[in-house]
Amino acid sequence: MTHVFFVPAILTHTLAQMESRTKIKRILTHGEKSAVYMADGYARATGRPGVSFAQCIGAANLAAALRDPFMACSPMVVFTGGPSPHTRHRHTYQQIDDFPLFGPLTKYSARVDEVCRLPDVVRQAFRAATTGTPGPAHIELAGHFGELEQQVDELTVVCEPQFGRVPALRPLADSGVVAEAARLLQQAKRPVIVAGGGVRSSAAGQELVELAERLALPVATSLNAKDVVPGNHPLSVGVPGWYCRKSANQVVMEADLVFFVGSHTGSQVTAKWRVPPVGTPVIQLDINPEELGRHYPNRVSLLGDAKVVLGQLIEAADASSAATRSTWIARARALVGLWREEFAGLMNSDAVPIRPERLCKDLTELMPPDTLLLAETGHSGMWAGGMIDLDKPGQGFLRAAGSLGWGLPAALGAKLALPDRPVLLFSGDGGFWYHLAELETAVRWNIAAVLLVNNNRSLNQVIDPCKEAYGGELRGNHAELWQFRDVSFAQLAEAMGAEGIRVGQPGELVGALDKAFSCGKPCVVEVITEITAMAPLAYLGETS
Predict the structure, then answer these.
(1) Domains of the chain by range and CATH?
(2) pLDDT confidence of 95, banded at 50, 70, 90?
(3) Is residue 104 within 8 Å of residue 67, measured between CB atoms?
(4) pTM of the predicted model over 0.85
């Protein structure tokens, strides 16, 4: 652990001792949600648990922010103050029982009222966060500010480095089940892999690609796994589901066998279980037995860690079957090619305001190797998921699991974790507004992330619902429901001590990104884009 993220006053004695006894940096944020999102970005970028603190009155804010790391299976350990046994049920100033809020948002949540329990509860929190499906853990310490810490004299603390990163444990699958899965993959005429976030958590991208190449299997990746296969790999077909590339949905829907690896098979990656349709033969590999067969009845269920079980499959698989799938591979490549042809005009458009498709194409070409790209949810997730490719060595991808506003704090946390890598945020203006105050944090700590704002001065993803609500056309004062004033984020950044660049013409992005990545300070790159541009909707089959 190199950083903690907090809003005071909480664990003040602990934070003070960090200065003299450790090298941990203490990052003061402007809100509890920002503290969680920064810790989440740190955790997803490194695989090490992110840690954040909040006092009792801020516990509900902190709990609300755990929604995103919980849905994204991000390892975190958070500490909050809470009522002491003698203050519960007494209308103590600023105190309510926040503890129940954490139940649905964590893998483990515990109260510590006696200091002797602190060592074992902290150890258990880190074990919960890093084993099985990763996720947040929560500890409520007695006292509004966690004053329980002041009772600590000398406790016997057992450090368990094994539980300091994900995955802490790598279980193998049953060899007989592995053999059956390999047999089904070899027999299938049109198989496809759908890789989920478990592949990324397990660092199993190399094994995934090796198996796909060995058996000639097209690969679709969820948003959480977008970076496990290079975007220009001949077997890559894109992101399936809602925030998708059309070619990925087409390939998955045409498949006669789908191999889900490290995926919850939830509504996002399957477009509400239509990609593939229920009834499609499925093999599923997951480290959590509760996920196996949850949404699709499995022909084979593989329980284990993605990296080691894919290694088992590589050893078990007969590569000679790949030759029987040349027609299927050609079909998958053709569908990817047709998708590129369909959007080539918009991706190369010189229109002003700038088309988001052109912005995404330019980012694909201009991002340096080793860049970690983070994307907001909503339209930002749709544009990034479907239109941006990660073609260069070492490039990575993280995305909001559904909480608008996650991007800016998460990018700062990721950059603190990876100071020597380029870190680029892809956000809309709607998401960027949420935690704009954290630009001050970025300047205070000189967190040199590049923060790109796709600025169409609106929440234009709701254009269609507004149009429907107004009887099929935008009339009346519809703009009050989805548009903002035209504000320069570049000027706001400069006023706060960061670098600010405004891009209004398509050709200006090259110079803007060169300057942003080389300036050595936080930089907001504001790109003015077309307000009516809508991300493509999910392909769910041809309609008559």
Answers:
(1) 3-164 (3.40.50.970), 175-334 (3.40.50.1220), 348-528 (3.40.50.970)
(2) confident
(3) no
(4) yes
